[in-house]
């Protein structure tokens, strides 16, 4: 089963990417995870361009979501909000039904993250994605919980990520 994992950070080798890499290595072998890191390639949302023929990068992004059985989004918080690049990409999905009933896992991993987490939940509910409380995870203080090689060094965070993964996988069983 295909899982699309979207990192909300545009930083190369970010903590969010490392979390998604960890998940891709720990997930049940029946899942194939693709980590999407190309948010910067998606043009600024413009309703005038959201027609029958939207920009090619938007079509590609939408197709990746459509073709996946599930989606995991892992994002930081920037200035008490979602990163603009992630919000922009999600705005391109509003006029579609590609997230409707799509099985979803949501992780906010940042210094604090509470505001971005709230906004992500609201947006994904608006897009009618399917997720429960146990398929959501807020990891505050992420930089002290993961090392440069991407190993989760904080025991409670490791346990929380494994629990998140277990609950995410069980949506499909």
UniProtKB/TrEMBL annotation:
<dbReference type="InterPro" id="IPR005025">
    <property type="entry name" value="FMN_Rdtase-like_dom"/>
</dbReference>
<protein>
    <recommendedName>
        <fullName>NADPH-dependent FMN reductase-like domain-containing protein</fullName>
    </recommendedName>
</protein>
<dbReference type="InterPro" id="IPR050712">
    <property type="entry name" value="NAD(P)H-dep_reductase"/>
</dbReference>
<feature type="domain" description="NADPH-dependent FMN reductase-like">
    <location>
        <begin position="1"/>
        <end position="139"/>
    </location>
</feature>
<dbReference type="Pfam" id="PF03358">
    <property type="entry name" value="FMN_red"/>
</dbReference>
<dbReference type="InterPro" id="IPR029039">
    <property type="entry name" value="Flavoprotein-like_sf"/>
</dbReference>
